[in-house]
Amino acid sequence: LQLEKDLHLALERDEFILYMQPQLNLADGRQSSVEALIRWQHPTRGLVPPLEFIPAAEESGLIIPIGRWVLENACRYLSSWRGTALDHMSIAINLSGRELASPDLLEAVSGMLTRYAVDPSKLKIELTEEIFIDNIEHNMDQLLRLDQLGLQLAIDDFGVGYSSLAYLRNFPVSLVKIDRSFIAHVVERPDDAVIVRAVINLAHNLGIPVVAEGIETQAQLDFLRDNHCDLIQGYFTGHPMPAKALLAHLSRTA
Ligand code: G
Ligand code: G
Ligand code: MN
Ligand code: NA
């Protein structure tokens, strides 16, 4: 309950910050997208990672105003990057099942896109497979409307949920993100290699590009390139960083 009060205050005092983790396109070697990951700049505790407050935010419903803050700030960055060296960047934001369930989500998203004059295709929404388990009709409706707005929809942590694969055919999925637990040992464990190859082939045969998460070594990168993965994200190509560090990072790694 104290945490809940503190989160209220954090919103009022504007203590949240978006870190950005670059994604590398393996085909052209360009970094043209980032995932926005929230952190809390706590006055005494320092930089608090999301796992320490997102669950409480979900529980209390504060995830809705926090998620709106994330959405607005992602749009603000996209708008501020226009005409700069970051003009080509798209931003992925994470949305929980509870946020997707929110009846005024679509209004909030289209409102922000208009307010910041953001090209909807520059905004990606990452959702986990939980959204294909309960409340499916409403979720389908929300996804179709987000898709119609022109946003890209990514399935996060792919392969660790308990949903049916049929959603890949029935829902407007623009991207699959292979969970990092499959990547961690992909080089030395043949079973993980089989799974990762199968996911890439499955997605590609459905016309869906693939992001692999949690790349920490050159050997993992080589494996993914050899197996035609589209994008990679991980500490090897860049830790999550403050947005103002992005430009320097890109010029360093270009
Ligand atoms: O950045 P880090 O790896 O610590 O993130 C941990 C988890 O927190 C990830 O699963 C990520 O999806 C989640 N997360 C990060 N930022 C946000 C956000 O803005 N909204 C929601 N709902 N979850 C987030
Ligand atoms: O669940 P989601 O994919 O949204 O969360 C992304 C989380 O993964 C972030 O908290 C980020 O800090 C973390 N992360 C990003 N790259 C790596 C990596 O290379 N290794 C590990 N262990 N974690 C990573
Ligand atoms: Mn994510
Ligand atoms: Na993930």
TrEMBL record:
<feature type="domain" description="EAL">
    <location>
        <begin position="1"/>
        <end position="254"/>
    </location>
</feature>
<protein>
    <recommendedName>
        <fullName>cyclic-guanylate-specific phosphodiesterase</fullName>
    </recommendedName>
</protein>
